């Protein structure tokens, strides 16, 4: 019982400063709404009312599923392809040097340019957001995968080979843990970018999804609806991070919990 109580107290202590930050943000938001009025900046309460109305109308669930499918689908393709090719490039310097100019070009092209190209190629279909997410997130994942594989501990690998460690075990137990320490921050960054790019592409080139509903709210001058959709996006991003990436990281990197607890 005492151990459970100690865990609860520790969790509450960890939440103090994040809760303080959220409270400060809401207070500043409220003050801003008082200064500029509901048309420019609706209050948090008005945004929540708009969110509740959109939820009752069934718009939130439908749009969230469409946008989540596009953002997560594009992110999954970028994560798998970028991680695989990046690890191979990190293990083979010649491949890394060959792909480096392509990666630099992809990183240098802004997402809006990809959206314009995707609109010309795919029109106002669901492929436009997915394609834009893939080409935007792919070079980020590739870059961190290359760096993780390139900076691996070669001395530890040599020690493993001296004990005739099978290649598969050498990769899974020696190389992969180090590479994952680079990949997870890159995945989180790419995931956040995927949501932004997907919504941007939907706003400009789709008739459904959260981006399309944002465009409709802009046309109707419904600022509260815009803020409501932003809240939906933030909630979805946090849910994916806490329910998918965080448990995956704890499972694949159990040593981090030991380091943090010590």
Automatic annotation (TrEMBL):
<keyword id="KW-0812">Transmembrane</keyword>
<dbReference type="Pfam" id="PF00528">
    <property type="entry name" value="BPD_transp_1"/>
</dbReference>
<keyword id="KW-0813">Transport</keyword>
<dbReference type="InterPro" id="IPR035906">
    <property type="entry name" value="MetI-like_sf"/>
</dbReference>
<protein>
    <submittedName>
        <fullName>Binding-protein-dependent transport systems inner membrane component</fullName>
    </submittedName>
</protein>
<dbReference type="GO" id="GO:0005886">
    <property type="term" value="C:plasma membrane"/>
</dbReference>
<feature type="transmembrane region" description="Helical">
    <location>
        <begin position="71"/>
        <end position="91"/>
    </location>
</feature>
<keyword id="KW-1133">Transmembrane helix</keyword>
<feature type="transmembrane region" description="Helical">
    <location>
        <begin position="103"/>
        <end position="122"/>
    </location>
</feature>
<feature type="domain" description="ABC transmembrane type-1">
    <location>
        <begin position="64"/>
        <end position="244"/>
    </location>
</feature>
<dbReference type="InterPro" id="IPR000515">
    <property type="entry name" value="MetI-like"/>
</dbReference>
<dbReference type="GO" id="GO:0055085">
    <property type="term" value="P:transmembrane transport"/>
</dbReference>
<feature type="transmembrane region" description="Helical">
    <location>
        <begin position="128"/>
        <end position="146"/>
    </location>
</feature>
<feature type="transmembrane region" description="Helical">
    <location>
        <begin position="226"/>
        <end position="245"/>
    </location>
</feature>
<keyword id="KW-0472">Membrane</keyword>
<comment type="similarity">
    <text>Belongs to the binding-protein-dependent transport system permease family.</text>
</comment>
<keyword id="KW-1003">Cell membrane</keyword>
<feature type="transmembrane region" description="Helical">
    <location>
        <begin position="179"/>
        <end position="198"/>
    </location>
</feature>
């Amino acid at each position: 019982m005492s151990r459970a109580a100690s865990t609860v107290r520790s969790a509450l202590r960890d939440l103090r400063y994040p809760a303080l930050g959220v409270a400060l943000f809401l207070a500043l938001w409220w003050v801003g709404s008082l200064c500029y009025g509901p048309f420019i900046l609706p209050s948090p309460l008005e945004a929540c009312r708009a969110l509740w109305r959109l939820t009752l109308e069934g718009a939130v669930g439908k749009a969230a599923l469409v946008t989540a499918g596009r953002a997560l689908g594009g992110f999954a393709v970028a994560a798998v392809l970028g991680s695989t090719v990046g690890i191979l490039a990190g293990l083979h310097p010649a491949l890394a040097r060959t792909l480096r100019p392509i990666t630099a070009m992809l990183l240098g092209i802004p997402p809006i340019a990809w959206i314009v190209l995707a609109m010309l190629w795919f029109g106002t279909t669901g492929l436009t957001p997915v394609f834009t997410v893939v080409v935007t997130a792919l070079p980020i994942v590739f870059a961190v995968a290359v760096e993780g594989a390139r900076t691996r501990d070669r001395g530890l690998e040599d020690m493993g080979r001296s004990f005739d460690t099978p290649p598969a075990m050498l990769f899974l137990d020696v190389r992969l843990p180090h590479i994952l320490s680079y990949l997870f921050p890159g995945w989180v960054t790419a995931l956040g970018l995927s949501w932004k790019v997907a919504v941007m592409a939907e706003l400009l080139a789709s008739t459904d999804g959260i981006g399309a509903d944002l465009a409709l709210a802009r046309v109707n001058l419904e600022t509260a609806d815009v803020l409501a959709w932003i809240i939906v996006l933030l909630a979805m991003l946090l849910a994916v991070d806490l329910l998918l990436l965080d448990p995956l990281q704890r499972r694949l990197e159990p040593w981090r919990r030991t380091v943090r607890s010590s």
